[in-house]
Amino acid sequence: MSEPTRPTSVFPRTEALTTAMPAKPGERAVRRRPKPGLLIGGSIVALFVLVALAAPLIAPHGPNDQDVLNILASPSPAHWLGTDELGRDVLSRLIFAARVDLGIGLLGALLPAVAGTALGAIAGYFGGWADALIMRLSDVVQAFPSYILIIALVFVFGQGPVSILISFTLVSWVAYARLVRTEVLRVREQDFVQAARVAGLGDRRVLWGHVLPNSLQQAVLYLPADIIGATLGLAALSFLGLGVEPPTAEWGAMIAQGKPYLREQWWLATVPGLAVFVFGVGLSLAAEGLNSRRTR
């Protein structure tokens, strides 16, 4: 008696894994060769992340330790980047500020991404009144300039990281919702989605288990750019005095504190500004490299 035939899956995601032909050795080597921009950008971002994680170990002083005998001191072996107007070590504050900026920058992009992805998936899959309500709400948010709306929300919720994250989430979810909605509208008409419905799966399992995982590419590619935007937004708010509260070390606040001393102690504002710039360039290079690999 012959063995029973093994049933094949009706979903192309699993079927593709079993039927895909391996690439030629030469082609595989070309595909896996990383882009220079991806290597450089990824290295820069990894360096900033390591510095932020190891801040207590590598910072020569505490971020708020004061040396009252060396106020506004020039760079020296004791203080490699000098001291600020309160005698605090600039290098130590720069290192500890990476924890604040990278943490809020990452969460300031992830939280809107989660909220926008969920709302966009619901709008695109179910349509009808849910789609109309979510899209009209996004139109209202987009009717205001982003930074003006964020500043207004920070005024309403108060100063601090929590209010900043809430403000970023309430403003930045729109981009993810629109990206995911567009992809869901395309994916929900695919054959494997129809097969899932015929197999008796409910809308919840079809949406979150099959439609959404195939609709996240554009949102994932947009995420690094949004992290840059959230980091720059935090620096801008802190520069205006609306970011994290003193004496917490933060790059934007350090730029604002060093602005009155640009002629004599130019490094007080320039070095944290360079930190923001280099981190943004690293993320941009990494995002561009990921995008080029994804589209090849």
From TrEMBL:
Gene3D superfamilies: MetI-like. Residues 98-287 form the ABC transmembrane type-1 domain. It is found in: Cell membrane. The chain crosses the membrane at residues 38-59, 102-128, 140-158, 220-244, 266-287. Keywords: Cell membrane, Membrane, Transmembrane, Transmembrane helix, Transport. It is a multi-pass membrane protein. Its main location: membrane. InterPro entries: BP-dependent_transpt_permease (IPR050366), MetI-like (IPR000515), MetI-like_sf (IPR035906), OppC_N (IPR025966). Pfam families: BPD_transp_1, OppC_N. PANTHER family: D,D-DIPEPTIDE TRANSPORT SYSTEM PERMEASE PROTEIN DDPC-RELATED, OLIGOPEPTIDE TRANSPORT SYSTEM PERMEASE PROTEIN APPC. Belongs to the binding-protein-dependent transport system permease family. This is ABC transporter permease.
